[in-house]
Amino acid sequence: MNQRVLLLYGLMGLVLLFVGFFQSWNVAFGIFNLCVISAIMALGVNMQWGYAGLFNVGVMGFTALGGLAAVLISMPPVAAAWQVAGGDLALSVLALGGTVVAVVAARRAIPRPLKMPATFLILLIGYFVIGVFFGPATDKIEAIDPALSGYLGGLGLPVLVAWPVGALVAAGAGWFIGRIALGLRADYLAIATLGISEIIIAIIKYEEWLSRGVKNVTGIPRPVPYEVDLVQQDWFIGFANFFGASDLSEAASLFVKLCYALLFVAVLAVVMWFAERALRSPWGRMMRAIRDNREAAAAMGKDVKKRHLQTFVLGCAVCGLAGAMLTTLDGQLTPTSYIPLRYTFLIWVMVILGGSGNNWGAVLGGFVIWFLWVQAEPLGNWFMQAVTAPFPEGSQFADHLVSGAAYTRYLLMGGILLVVMRFAPRGLIPERSTGRAA
Amino acid sequence: MEILNALALFANFVFVPATAYGAQLALGALGVTLIFGILRFANFSHGEMMSFGAMASILATWGMQEAGVSIAPFPTALLALPIGVAAAIGMALATDRMVFRFYRKQRSNPIVMAIVSVGVMFVLAGIIRLIIGPDDQSFADGERFIINARDSRAALGLDEGIAIKQTQVITLVVALAVMSALFWFLQKTRSGKAMRAYSDDEDLALLSGISPERVVAICWIIAAALAAIAGTLYGLDKTYKPFIFMQILLPIFAATILGGIGQPVGAILGAFIVAYSEVMVTYAFRKVLAYLGPEGWAPEGLVQLLSTDYKFAVSFIILVAVLLIRPTGIIRGKVI
Amino acid sequence: MSFLSATGMTGGYGGLDIITDCTLTVETGEIAVVVGPNGAGKSTAMKAVFGMLNLREGTVTLDGEDITALPPQDRVPKGMAFVPQNRNVFVSLSVEENLEMGGFIRDDDLSDTKDLVFSLFPVLAEKRRQPAGELSGGQRQQVAVGRALMTKPKLLMLDEPTAGVSPIVMDELFDKILEIADTGVAILMVEQNARQALEIADHGFVLVQGRNRFTDTGEALLANEEVRRSFLGG
């Protein structure tokens, strides 16, 4: 690791310490935890863009899948829902299986010109048959205590299980879209990922039986202690006293954040270790060779599409993992909070600013941009106040500007991306030179 | 009689609105396909350019309404449209000068251009929200219907009427006029032919003395004008919602790829296919089937393939199907 | 000084010189042919003459005017026209539109020049509305040459005009090139079919590894024992 990396990481650390000393340690650790999650997402995107030059415009969808996994794994099952709708659900699954079998059989048996229409017809019939069972099932599920549940619930497993599962689910979605869109024009992948991410969000938003939709799932079990429990534990009170904490509940909240921080940093370290190993391995060298000169690599017999699919799926998995972690930290799944600016574009800005192709850069980018993101709102407000100060009290124009302050984030993030792409395309920590001729 | 009623119902809720929507999509997709053909990248900022043009039209409309200018029974927005077009053109040329030109000179990878266009998209989104705010805006005035449901019921002597909104007719007329002008320009004028030549082969165009900067500027001007018109018509027909323009990107891209990228005729074809599929798939056919079936019978469910919440899934399915079956699109476009 | 005189050209791509101290000249109404083994830098030399390659050294003058610093598109109005070896027609444009695009820089009426091209290549007149991409290889070359002629060039540069066409079509093309030269156009071309090309050439340049090896009249080169043995296959 060179001096530049150390210096930049040191600076970032200092800024966080500054927040700790002058604002509060709770705020500092709150930011830090989200910084770590952002860094993991950035690592995922960096695998796709930095290693392979793949443009994923659907990061939001893959993180949302991770979030959904957290709900489906950790929430307790809603027994009543399974009771009333279990039969219909089983029939739906059966119908689905039947459709799949019918399609496969038909595609084998039917000659080529009729293959397409036949497949289409079977799918259509299957879709309606599934609907016959599935429609009533979802209605019944959603009718059960809609204010509190109205969905199937999860498996009731520890939430930590959801993290690898979230990665797997996101990887599956990535595989599906990659199979279709890779190997064609590079921008097709971008457009296809844009599509799938919107559909994933729509499913989470509107399939109430699955995710409660816009009613949100709250109270996702934690992998760490609860503050209310902590303040009653003798060992914790002693612990807090030992450090001279004045406010016990604040100390508890800090302690919880610290636990999360340890967990997250451990995950980041593991992902980082793998990412770095992969980058330095022959596989990583091959990936970069393909990225820098696709034709030459293909001419040398490298299966470009297959390699691209590998990295793409890996990157999606990491995004899914981070998504599951984020939902765990929040303790709730709020489908409406998934907006492209926050979950796709922001991550991109992190990677580009940090240094495409460099994992240390991506992590640093995650920290810096998340910090800016958090601070942008007060800054935007302050800026708008300052700009509108000369206007008379109650001026409509001034009110309008102040109310739009939240949208300065769009400008700020878009601006950072454009400026970095233009003037420092290699980012804060440039990719290590691979010995290419100047 | 029953069949006629079913047809009227279908026309009223599927054919008429989908045609207007298709025309709006086609105008957007034409811009995207031109930029694909000339500048060779997927322009993600096109949706926001539509929004920006529409916003400028709305502001101008408000100004005119305030000043008492009116062309009733037509909507004032029609009069304001040239201002929206001018604003969008100015914005497009400015972004090209400040952002895209640099990468063009460097002959950057198209995917880099696409990323940069995402940056432009967010900057534009920010500017729009700062100026007009994030809320819905309604700016349609003038007559609402050309034919309303009651009159058409009486005229046709049916139980079902076909209502035709003025905005739908305006959309079609304007779109037809704009498309004819565009095709005349591309086929008959020197600059239009130069654009096609440039899209065909950049280097050879250079050898023939065709100035790339001029072609690129014309391309931006046309694309931005189309975007502003599409955005304004869309806002006029429905309401202007700033956030919708990020979602409309997907059907526009689907239409562009379905038609064959860089192919204007394909873009129009693709747009109408996407629009009709979207509206048909999300329409509940229950009543139509009830008319067609035996007396007194009605299907049990809504007979709706997909709920309207998933309407953009239709674009996505079309996109996936095209990529799987014929990635070059209906009219062979530029693939790699 | 010759009408076109490119002297002492040295340059290449990415710091690597492909041509070194290379000199090519043509007179008005004459045909000069550049021949040599594969990889001798023939096409690169042509590109250098047309300004598509940054020269480290050397000068290019046309009709006495120094044009070394001009980019390709600015050399077209000076009277130069270039037919690249590949991708030399607009495939989706009709034959007639291809010719119109060839004359893009002209503001006057193109119909006379168009008629001239059509009389030179009658088959193009028949297929004027057909997209150039649908034509045969030989017909495409005719479109390419026709496109270049639309600017009424004083110097026509052809990069392997007969690549990939049958011997009969090749002879026909060479005849047309002679016809064009007779109208007072200077022609500089690179050819693989060295013997046939030198037969119609007034001057020949034999390039080897980016340097001039032999320079003489076409006749003399054909008669030169060493040239015949090494470059014309005996």
Précis, in short:
The complex is a heterotrimer of chains A (438), B (336) and C (234). Chain A has helices at residues 3-22, 25-52, 59-74, 79-109, 112-143, 159-181, 186-206, 208-211, 227-230, 234-242, 248-280, 282-292, 294-299, 304-330, 340-354, 359-388, 396-403, 408-423; strands at residues 217-218, 332-333.
The main β sheet of chain A shows up as:
2 strands, antiparallel
| CATH C-level class of the largest domain in chain A | Mainly Alpha
Largest interface chains and counts? A-B, 47 and 51 residues
Looking at CATH, which topology of the largest domain in chain A would you report?
Answer: ABC transporter involved in vitamin B12 uptake, BtuC
**Which assembly state applies to the chains in this document?**
heterotrimer
Low-confidence stretches of chain A: none
Order of helices and strands of chain A: HHHHHHHHEHHHHHHEHHHH
Low-confidence blocks of residues of chain B: none
| Overall tally of domains of chain B | 1
> Given this structure, which CATH class of chain B is correct?
Mainly Alpha
Estimated radius of gyration of chain A: 25 Å
Structure, described:
The complex is a heterotrimer of chains A (438), B (336) and C (234). Helix content of chain A is 76%, strand content 1%. Chain A has 438 residues and is an all-alpha fold. Chain A has two domains: 3-77 and 153-423, Orthogonal Bundle (ABC transporter involved in vitamin B12 uptake, BtuC); 89-150. A two-stranded antiparallel ribbon of chain A has the order 1-2. In chain A, helix 1 packs across helix 16, helix 4 (79-109) packs antiparallel against helix 5 (112-143) and helix 15 (340-354) crosses helix 16 (359-388). The longest helix of chain A has 33 residues, at 248-280. Chain B is mainly alpha-helical. Chain B has 14 helices and two strands; from the N terminus they run ααααβαβααααααααα. Chain B has a two-stranded antiparallel ribbon with strand order 1-2. In chain B, helix 3 (76-105) packs antiparallel against helix 4 (110-132), helix 11 crosses helix 12 (264-282) and helix 11 runs parallel beside helix 14 (311-325). The mean pLDDT of chain B is 88. Chain C is α/β, with parallel strands linked by helices and 234 residues long. Chain C has two domains: 1-79 and 155-161 and 181-234, P-loop containing nucleotide triphosphate hydrolases (Rossmann fold, 3-Layer(aba) Sandwich); 85-152, no CATH class. In chain C, helix 3 (95-102) packs parallel to helix 6 (137-149). Chain C starts with a strand and ends with a helix. The mean pLDDT of chain C is 87. Chains in contact: A-B, B-C. At the A-B interface, helix 5, helix 7, helix 15, helix 17 and helix 18 of A face helix 4, helix 11 and helix 14 of B.
